[in-house]
Amino acid sequence: MENSVKKSNEHSGEEDKERDIQENNNGHMCLAITNCNGETHAKLDEIITHYEGTLNQKISHFLGYPTNQNFDYDALAPLLHFHINNAGDPFMGSSYGVNSTDFEISVLDWFAKLWEIKKGEYWGYVTTGGTEGNLHGILIGREKFPDGILYTSQDSHYSIFKIARIYRMQCIKVGTLINGEIDCADLKTLLLAHKDKPAIINLNIGSTMKGAIDNIDMVIETLEERGFPRDRFYIHCDGALFGMMLPFLEQAPSITFKKSIGSITISGHKFLGCPIPCGVLLTRLEHINTLCKDVEVIGSRDTTISGSRSGHASIFIWYALQKKGLLGLENEVHKCIMNACYLKRKLRDAGICTMLNEYSNTVVFEKPLDCEFIRKWNLAYEGDIAHVVVMQHVTVEMLDSFVDEFIKTRLRKPLCLADKIGAENCTCILHI
Ligand SMILES: *Cc1c(COP(=O)(O)O)cnc(C)c1O
Question: Same domain, yes or no, for 128 and 250?
Protein backbone atom coordinates (compact mmCIF):
# COMPACT_ATOMS: atom_id res chain seq x y z
CA MET A 1 0.00 0.00 0.00
CA GLU A 2 2.79 2.35 0.95
CA ASN A 3 4.32 1.72 -2.47
CA SER A 4 1.26 2.56 -4.48
CA VAL A 5 0.81 5.73 -2.46
CA LYS A 6 4.38 6.74 -3.16
CA LYS A 7 4.20 6.00 -6.88
CA SER A 8 1.09 8.06 -7.37
CA ASN A 9 2.82 11.02 -5.75
CA GLU A 10 4.79 12.93 -8.37
CA HIS A 11 5.63 15.88 -6.08
CA SER A 12 2.86 18.14 -7.21
CA GLY A 13 1.09 19.93 -4.40
CA GLU A 14 -2.27 18.70 -5.74
CA GLU A 15 -1.29 15.07 -5.49
CA ASP A 16 0.30 15.52 -2.08
CA LYS A 17 -3.00 16.89 -0.88
CA GLU A 18 -4.86 14.04 -2.47
CA ARG A 19 -2.59 11.53 -0.77
CA ASP A 20 -3.14 13.11 2.63
CA ILE A 21 -6.87 12.98 2.12
CA GLN A 22 -6.69 9.34 1.04
CA GLU A 23 -4.72 8.39 4.11
CA ASN A 24 -7.08 10.25 6.35
CA ASN A 25 -10.11 8.70 4.70
CA ASN A 26 -9.03 5.16 5.22
CA GLY A 27 -8.67 6.16 8.85
CA HIS A 28 -5.26 4.69 9.42
CA MET A 29 -3.13 7.76 9.35
CA CYS A 30 -5.54 10.03 11.17
CA LEU A 31 -3.69 10.66 14.40
CA ALA A 32 -5.62 13.68 15.64
CA ILE A 33 -6.48 13.30 19.32
CA THR A 34 -10.18 14.14 19.48
CA ASN A 35 -12.11 11.55 21.46
CA CYS A 36 -13.08 13.06 24.84
CA ASN A 37 -13.82 9.64 26.29
CA GLY A 38 -10.48 8.23 25.26
CA GLU A 39 -9.99 6.06 22.19
CA THR A 40 -10.87 2.35 22.15
CA HIS A 41 -8.17 -0.30 22.42
CA ALA A 42 -9.21 -1.74 19.09
CA LYS A 43 -8.78 1.57 17.29
CA LEU A 44 -5.42 2.23 18.92
CA ASP A 45 -4.18 -1.28 18.13
CA GLU A 46 -5.19 -0.80 14.52
CA ILE A 47 -3.23 2.45 14.25
CA ILE A 48 -0.14 0.99 15.86
CA THR A 49 -0.26 -2.13 13.69
CA HIS A 50 -0.53 0.01 10.59
CA TYR A 51 2.37 2.16 11.76
CA GLU A 52 4.46 -0.96 12.38
CA GLY A 53 3.86 -1.91 8.76
CA THR A 54 4.98 1.53 7.62
CA LEU A 55 8.13 1.24 9.72
CA ASN A 56 8.99 -2.17 8.30
CA GLN A 57 8.58 -0.78 4.81
CA LYS A 58 10.83 2.21 5.62
CA ILE A 59 13.57 0.11 7.16
CA SER A 60 13.81 -2.10 4.09
CA HIS A 61 15.04 0.96 2.18
CA PHE A 62 16.87 2.76 4.96
CA LEU A 63 20.38 3.57 3.71
CA GLY A 64 21.31 7.19 4.38
CA TYR A 65 21.63 7.45 8.16
CA PRO A 66 24.03 5.70 10.54
CA THR A 67 21.47 3.98 12.73
CA ASN A 68 21.60 0.22 13.10
CA GLN A 69 18.05 -1.11 12.68
CA ASN A 70 18.95 -4.70 13.33
CA PHE A 71 18.22 -5.58 16.94
CA ASP A 72 15.92 -7.49 19.22
CA TYR A 73 15.15 -6.24 22.71
CA ASP A 74 11.97 -8.28 23.15
CA ALA A 75 13.46 -9.84 26.28
CA LEU A 76 13.39 -6.40 27.91
CA ALA A 77 9.66 -5.89 27.32
CA PRO A 78 8.77 -6.50 31.02
CA LEU A 79 10.83 -3.43 31.88
CA LEU A 80 8.33 -1.25 30.04
CA HIS A 81 6.15 -1.63 33.12
CA PHE A 82 8.51 0.65 35.02
CA HIS A 83 9.61 4.21 34.85
CA ILE A 84 13.34 3.94 35.51
CA ASN A 85 15.12 7.22 36.10
CA ASN A 86 18.85 7.75 36.55
CA ALA A 87 18.71 11.42 37.52
CA GLY A 88 22.03 12.71 38.79
CA ASP A 89 25.60 11.50 38.83
CA PRO A 90 25.66 7.71 38.27
CA PHE A 91 28.61 7.34 40.62
CA MET A 92 26.95 9.15 43.52
CA GLY A 93 23.76 7.15 43.62
CA SER A 94 20.46 8.98 43.74
CA SER A 95 17.63 9.22 46.20
CA TYR A 96 15.34 8.27 43.29
CA GLY A 97 15.35 4.54 44.03
CA VAL A 98 13.87 3.18 40.80
CA ASN A 99 17.08 3.56 38.84
CA SER A 100 19.42 1.43 36.74
CA THR A 101 22.72 3.07 37.69
CA ASP A 102 24.30 -0.35 38.34
CA PHE A 103 23.74 -1.17 34.67
CA GLU A 104 24.91 2.28 33.69
CA ILE A 105 28.19 1.88 35.55
CA SER A 106 28.78 -1.52 33.96
CA VAL A 107 28.34 0.13 30.57
CA LEU A 108 30.74 2.93 31.48
CA ASP A 109 33.32 0.43 32.79
CA TRP A 110 33.11 -1.41 29.49
CA PHE A 111 33.80 1.77 27.51
CA ALA A 112 36.57 2.76 29.91
CA LYS A 113 38.31 -0.51 29.09
CA LEU A 114 37.71 -0.03 25.37
CA TRP A 115 39.23 3.46 25.43
CA GLU A 116 41.94 2.53 27.93
CA ILE A 117 41.29 4.53 31.06
CA LYS A 118 41.38 2.98 34.54
CA LYS A 119 38.42 2.66 36.83
CA GLY A 120 38.79 5.37 39.42
CA GLU A 121 40.39 7.68 36.86
CA TYR A 122 37.43 8.18 34.59
CA TRP A 123 33.98 9.66 34.91
CA GLY A 124 31.03 9.47 32.51
CA TYR A 125 27.34 8.91 32.02
CA VAL A 126 24.74 7.62 29.59
CA THR A 127 23.41 10.61 27.65
CA THR A 128 20.43 11.26 25.42
CA GLY A 129 22.69 10.99 22.37
CA GLY A 130 25.84 12.19 20.69
CA THR A 131 24.75 15.81 20.88
CA GLU A 132 24.50 15.74 24.68
CA GLY A 133 27.90 14.04 24.82
CA ASN A 134 29.32 16.87 22.73
CA LEU A 135 27.57 19.45 24.92
CA HIS A 136 29.18 17.90 27.98
CA GLY A 137 32.67 17.36 26.54
CA ILE A 138 32.89 20.89 25.19
CA LEU A 139 31.51 22.27 28.48
CA ILE A 140 34.39 20.62 30.33
CA GLY A 141 36.81 22.26 27.91
CA ARG A 142 35.10 25.62 28.35
CA GLU A 143 35.11 25.36 32.18
CA LYS A 144 38.75 24.43 32.10
CA PHE A 145 39.59 27.30 29.75
CA PRO A 146 36.90 29.99 30.07
CA ASP A 147 38.67 32.17 27.51
CA GLY A 148 39.54 29.26 25.21
CA ILE A 149 38.73 29.22 21.51
CA LEU A 150 36.83 26.26 20.06
CA TYR A 151 38.46 24.82 16.94
CA THR A 152 36.56 22.30 14.84
CA SER A 153 36.69 21.30 11.20
CA GLN A 154 34.19 22.62 8.70
CA ASP A 155 32.94 19.04 8.25
CA SER A 156 31.90 18.75 11.90
CA HIS A 157 28.39 17.75 12.93
CA TYR A 158 25.94 20.65 13.15
CA SER A 159 25.66 20.12 16.90
CA ILE A 160 29.17 21.52 17.40
CA PHE A 161 28.35 24.88 15.84
CA LYS A 162 25.11 25.01 17.79
CA ILE A 163 27.01 24.28 21.01
CA ALA A 164 29.45 27.11 20.27
CA ARG A 165 26.44 29.44 19.97
CA ILE A 166 24.79 28.11 23.15
CA TYR A 167 27.99 28.61 25.15
CA ARG A 168 28.81 31.85 23.32
CA MET A 169 32.27 30.55 22.58
CA GLN A 170 34.47 31.90 19.85
CA CYS A 171 34.48 29.10 17.29
CA ILE A 172 37.00 28.80 14.48
CA LYS A 173 36.24 26.55 11.54
CA VAL A 174 39.27 24.65 10.34
CA GLY A 175 39.53 23.54 6.71
CA THR A 176 39.51 19.89 5.68
CA LEU A 177 41.40 17.72 3.25
CA ILE A 178 39.45 16.28 0.33
CA ASN A 179 38.74 13.10 2.28
CA GLY A 180 37.06 15.21 4.98
CA GLU A 181 39.64 15.05 7.76
CA ILE A 182 40.87 18.16 9.56
CA ASP A 183 43.65 19.98 7.71
CA CYS A 184 46.50 20.31 10.22
CA ALA A 185 48.31 22.85 8.06
CA ASP A 186 45.30 25.12 8.33
CA LEU A 187 45.02 24.39 12.06
CA LYS A 188 48.66 25.37 12.46
CA THR A 189 48.08 28.76 10.82
CA LEU A 190 44.95 29.42 12.88
CA LEU A 191 46.66 28.47 16.15
CA LEU A 192 49.52 30.79 15.35
CA ALA A 193 47.12 33.68 14.84
CA HIS A 194 45.47 33.04 18.23
CA LYS A 195 48.46 32.06 20.28
CA ASP A 196 47.32 34.04 23.31
CA LYS A 197 44.19 31.95 23.96
CA PRO A 198 43.99 28.28 25.03
CA ALA A 199 42.64 25.83 22.45
CA ILE A 200 39.55 23.68 22.88
CA ILE A 201 39.46 21.25 20.01
CA ASN A 202 36.63 19.08 18.76
CA LEU A 203 37.80 16.15 16.64
CA ASN A 204 35.62 14.04 14.37
CA ILE A 205 36.13 10.35 14.85
CA GLY A 206 34.10 9.67 11.78
CA SER A 207 32.70 12.83 10.22
CA THR A 208 28.99 12.80 9.47
CA MET A 209 29.07 13.27 5.70
CA LYS A 210 32.31 11.65 4.53
CA GLY A 211 33.16 9.32 7.39
CA ALA A 212 36.57 10.95 7.83
CA ILE A 213 38.73 10.44 10.89
CA ASP A 214 40.61 13.45 12.24
CA ASN A 215 44.19 12.53 13.06
CA ILE A 216 44.50 12.87 16.86
CA ASP A 217 48.28 12.36 16.89
CA MET A 218 48.89 14.93 14.21
CA VAL A 219 46.62 17.46 15.93
CA ILE A 220 48.47 17.00 19.24
CA GLU A 221 51.79 17.35 17.42
CA THR A 222 50.56 20.51 15.73
CA LEU A 223 49.48 21.95 19.09
CA GLU A 224 52.80 21.21 20.71
CA GLU A 225 54.73 22.55 17.75
CA ARG A 226 52.77 25.78 17.98
CA GLY A 227 53.56 26.27 21.67
CA PHE A 228 50.41 24.76 23.16
CA PRO A 229 51.58 22.36 25.90
CA ARG A 230 49.14 19.93 27.53
CA ASP A 231 47.91 22.47 30.04
CA ARG A 232 46.88 24.89 27.28
CA PHE A 233 44.57 22.67 25.24
CA TYR A 234 41.58 20.39 25.67
CA ILE A 235 40.55 17.81 23.08
CA HIS A 236 37.04 16.39 22.83
CA CYS A 237 36.53 13.44 20.45
CA ASP A 238 33.17 13.21 18.71
CA GLY A 239 33.03 9.49 17.97
CA ALA A 240 29.28 9.25 17.34
CA LEU A 241 29.55 6.33 14.93
CA PHE A 242 33.22 5.35 14.50
CA GLY A 243 34.10 5.58 18.19
CA MET A 244 32.39 2.22 18.48
CA MET A 245 33.92 0.75 15.30
CA LEU A 246 37.62 1.69 15.15
CA PRO A 247 38.62 -0.37 18.22
CA PHE A 248 37.57 -3.47 16.25
CA LEU A 249 39.58 -2.74 13.12
CA GLU A 250 43.18 -3.80 13.06
CA GLN A 251 45.59 -0.98 12.15
CA ALA A 252 42.88 1.63 12.53
CA PRO A 253 43.99 4.75 14.42
CA SER A 254 43.57 4.09 18.12
CA ILE A 255 41.08 6.07 20.12
CA THR A 256 42.48 6.00 23.62
CA PHE A 257 42.86 8.02 26.79
CA LYS A 258 46.58 7.16 26.64
CA LYS A 259 46.70 10.13 24.27
CA SER A 260 46.24 13.68 25.55
CA ILE A 261 42.50 13.79 25.02
CA GLY A 262 39.93 14.97 27.54
CA SER A 263 36.68 13.27 26.52
CA ILE A 264 35.05 10.90 24.04
CA THR A 265 31.41 10.45 23.15
CA ILE A 266 29.44 7.98 21.04
CA SER A 267 25.78 7.64 20.07
CA GLY A 268 24.17 4.47 21.44
CA HIS A 269 21.57 4.28 18.69
CA LYS A 270 24.13 4.37 15.89
CA PHE A 271 26.45 1.37 15.69
CA LEU A 272 25.14 -0.42 18.78
CA GLY A 273 21.52 -0.13 17.77
CA CYS A 274 19.10 1.09 20.43
CA PRO A 275 15.40 1.72 19.92
CA ILE A 276 15.65 5.09 21.65
CA PRO A 277 18.29 7.78 21.13
CA CYS A 278 21.08 7.56 23.70
CA GLY A 279 24.82 7.90 23.99
CA VAL A 280 27.86 7.52 26.20
CA LEU A 281 30.25 10.21 27.38
CA LEU A 282 33.55 9.44 29.07
CA THR A 283 36.05 11.92 30.49
CA ARG A 284 38.84 12.07 33.05
CA LEU A 285 37.62 12.22 36.65
CA GLU A 286 39.91 15.15 37.37
CA HIS A 287 37.90 17.36 34.98
CA ILE A 288 34.62 16.70 36.70
CA ASN A 289 35.49 18.13 40.05
CA THR A 290 35.56 21.62 38.54
CA LEU A 291 32.01 21.14 37.22
CA CYS A 292 30.12 19.69 40.12
CA LYS A 293 27.68 21.11 42.59
CA ASP A 294 25.77 19.10 45.18
CA VAL A 295 22.01 19.12 44.83
CA GLU A 296 20.04 18.27 47.92
CA VAL A 297 16.70 17.48 46.33
CA ILE A 298 17.98 14.47 44.34
CA GLY A 299 20.69 13.55 46.84
CA SER A 300 23.32 13.59 44.12
CA ARG A 301 25.90 15.75 42.39
CA ASP A 302 24.82 17.89 39.48
CA THR A 303 27.37 16.82 36.91
CA THR A 304 25.12 15.89 33.99
CA ILE A 305 23.49 18.13 31.39
CA SER A 306 20.01 16.61 31.60
CA GLY A 307 18.27 16.11 34.94
CA SER A 308 16.02 13.07 34.65
CA ARG A 309 17.76 10.49 32.50
CA SER A 310 16.40 7.35 30.87
CA GLY A 311 17.16 4.29 32.97
CA HIS A 312 16.05 2.11 30.05
CA ALA A 313 18.78 3.54 27.80
CA SER A 314 21.54 2.20 30.07
CA ILE A 315 19.88 -1.21 30.13
CA PHE A 316 19.51 -1.27 26.33
CA ILE A 317 23.21 -0.50 25.88
CA TRP A 318 24.19 -3.00 28.58
CA TYR A 319 22.05 -5.69 26.98
CA ALA A 320 23.46 -5.07 23.48
CA LEU A 321 27.05 -5.25 24.75
CA GLN A 322 26.37 -8.40 26.76
CA LYS A 323 24.61 -10.14 23.91
CA LYS A 324 27.10 -9.32 21.17
CA GLY A 325 30.35 -9.64 23.07
CA LEU A 326 33.60 -8.26 21.67
CA LEU A 327 33.67 -10.92 18.97
CA GLY A 328 30.12 -10.21 17.88
CA LEU A 329 30.88 -6.51 17.61
CA GLU A 330 34.04 -7.21 15.65
CA ASN A 331 32.11 -9.36 13.19
CA GLU A 332 29.48 -6.69 12.74
CA VAL A 333 32.10 -4.01 12.06
CA HIS A 334 33.80 -6.23 9.46
CA LYS A 335 30.53 -7.06 7.78
CA CYS A 336 29.56 -3.39 7.48
CA ILE A 337 32.96 -2.42 6.05
CA MET A 338 32.90 -5.32 3.58
CA ASN A 339 29.44 -4.38 2.35
CA ALA A 340 30.52 -0.75 2.06
CA CYS A 341 33.43 -1.84 -0.17
CA TYR A 342 30.97 -3.89 -2.21
CA LEU A 343 28.72 -0.86 -2.73
CA LYS A 344 31.65 1.36 -3.65
CA ARG A 345 32.81 -1.13 -6.28
CA LYS A 346 29.32 -1.50 -7.73
CA LEU A 347 28.82 2.25 -8.05
CA ARG A 348 32.25 2.73 -9.56
CA ASP A 349 31.63 -0.10 -12.04
CA ALA A 350 28.47 1.72 -13.06
CA GLY A 351 30.56 4.82 -13.82
CA ILE A 352 29.35 6.77 -10.79
CA CYS A 353 31.81 8.99 -8.88
CA THR A 354 32.30 7.46 -5.46
CA MET A 355 34.58 7.66 -2.43
CA LEU A 356 35.06 5.42 0.59
CA ASN A 357 37.57 6.38 3.27
CA GLU A 358 39.70 3.78 4.99
CA TYR A 359 38.06 2.22 8.09
CA SER A 360 34.76 3.72 7.01
CA ASN A 361 31.31 2.36 6.17
CA THR A 362 30.15 5.68 4.68
CA VAL A 363 30.03 5.51 0.89
CA VAL A 364 29.98 8.97 -0.73
CA PHE A 365 28.78 9.50 -4.31
CA GLU A 366 27.15 12.02 -6.64
CA LYS A 367 23.82 13.25 -5.40
CA PRO A 368 21.08 11.57 -7.43
CA LEU A 369 18.83 13.95 -9.38
CA ASP A 370 15.63 12.03 -8.75
CA CYS A 371 13.98 13.31 -5.55
CA GLU A 372 11.68 10.33 -5.30
CA PHE A 373 14.70 8.00 -5.42
CA ILE A 374 16.40 9.99 -2.66
CA ARG A 375 13.27 9.86 -0.53
CA LYS A 376 12.65 6.17 -1.13
CA TRP A 377 16.14 5.20 0.02
CA ASN A 378 16.30 7.84 2.73
CA LEU A 379 19.58 9.23 1.39
CA ALA A 380 21.35 12.07 3.17
CA TYR A 381 22.98 14.69 0.95
CA GLU A 382 24.87 17.95 1.04
CA GLY A 383 25.44 20.01 -2.07
CA ASP A 384 26.47 17.72 -4.93
CA ILE A 385 27.24 14.67 -2.81
CA ALA A 386 25.10 12.05 -1.08
CA HIS A 387 25.99 9.06 1.03
CA VAL A 388 24.93 5.61 2.14
CA VAL A 389 26.01 4.47 5.59
CA VAL A 390 26.24 0.70 5.46
CA MET A 391 24.91 -0.47 8.81
CA GLN A 392 24.05 -3.94 10.12
CA HIS A 393 20.55 -4.08 8.62
CA VAL A 394 21.83 -3.30 5.13
CA THR A 395 22.03 -6.46 3.02
CA VAL A 396 23.77 -7.12 -0.29
CA GLU A 397 20.31 -7.55 -1.83
CA MET A 398 19.31 -4.07 -0.69
CA LEU A 399 22.51 -2.63 -2.14
CA ASP A 400 21.96 -4.47 -5.43
CA SER A 401 18.47 -3.10 -5.91
CA PHE A 402 19.62 0.33 -4.79
CA VAL A 403 22.35 0.47 -7.44
CA ASP A 404 20.10 -1.00 -10.16
CA GLU A 405 17.48 1.64 -9.48
CA PHE A 406 20.08 4.40 -9.26
CA ILE A 407 21.36 3.48 -12.73
CA LYS A 408 17.85 3.36 -14.17
CA THR A 409 16.84 6.78 -12.82
CA ARG A 410 20.17 8.51 -13.41
CA LEU A 411 19.88 9.75 -16.98
CA ARG A 412 22.98 11.91 -17.00
CA LYS A 413 26.71 11.94 -17.60
CA PRO A 414 28.99 11.90 -14.56
CA LEU A 415 29.37 15.24 -12.86
CA CYS A 416 32.90 16.37 -12.05
CA LEU A 417 33.34 15.84 -8.30
CA ALA A 418 37.14 15.96 -8.22
CA ASP A 419 37.21 18.89 -5.80
CA LYS A 420 34.78 17.18 -3.42
CA ILE A 421 35.93 13.56 -3.40
CA GLY A 422 39.25 13.61 -5.26
CA ALA A 423 40.24 13.20 -8.91
CA GLU A 424 40.97 9.49 -8.42
CA ASN A 425 37.35 8.95 -7.37
CA CYS A 426 35.85 11.04 -10.14
CA THR A 427 34.39 9.46 -13.25
CA CYS A 428 33.78 12.61 -15.28
CA ILE A 429 35.11 12.83 -18.79
CA LEU A 430 38.22 14.72 -17.63
CA HIS A 431 39.23 12.39 -14.83
CA ILE A 432 38.27 8.89 -15.88
C1 LIG B 1 25.19 11.65 14.57
C2 LIG B 1 26.32 12.50 14.95
C3 LIG B 1 26.26 13.31 16.09
C4 LIG B 1 25.00 13.54 16.88
O5 LIG B 1 24.51 12.46 17.46
P6 LIG B 1 23.01 12.41 17.99
O7 LIG B 1 23.05 11.12 18.70
O8 LIG B 1 22.14 12.46 16.79
O9 LIG B 1 22.79 13.57 18.88
C10 LIG B 1 27.39 14.01 16.45
N11 LIG B 1 28.51 13.92 15.75
C12 LIG B 1 28.61 13.18 14.64
C13 LIG B 1 29.91 13.14 13.90
C14 LIG B 1 27.51 12.45 14.19
O15 LIG B 1 27.62 11.73 13.07
Answer: yes
Q: Which of 266, 295, 324 is the last residue of a domain?
A: 324
Residue identifier of the C-alpha nearest atom 1 of ligand 1: 240
What is the C-alpha separation between 301 and 90, in angstroms, rounded?
Answer: 9
What is the pairing mode between strands 362-366 and 385-389?
Answer: antiparallel
Residue 290 domain flag: yes
Q: 423-431 — which CB contacts under 8 Å span 24+ positions?
A: 425/353, 425/354, 425/355, 426/353, 427/348, 427/351, 427/352, 427/353, 428/353
**Same domain (yes/no): 14, 150:** no
Ligand 1 site-directed mutation target among 131, 158, 281, most atoms within 8 Å of CB = 131
Low-confidence ranges of the chain (pLDDT < 50): 1-12, 15, 17-27
* Domain's final residue, options 324, 350, 379: 324
Ligand 1: distance of its center to the CA of 232 in Å?
A: 27
Domain encompassing residue 11: 1-59
**Considering the entire predicted model, what is its pTM?**
0.92
Q: Render pLDDT for 135-160 as a digit per residue (tens, 0 to 9).
A: 999 999 999 999 999 999 999 999 99
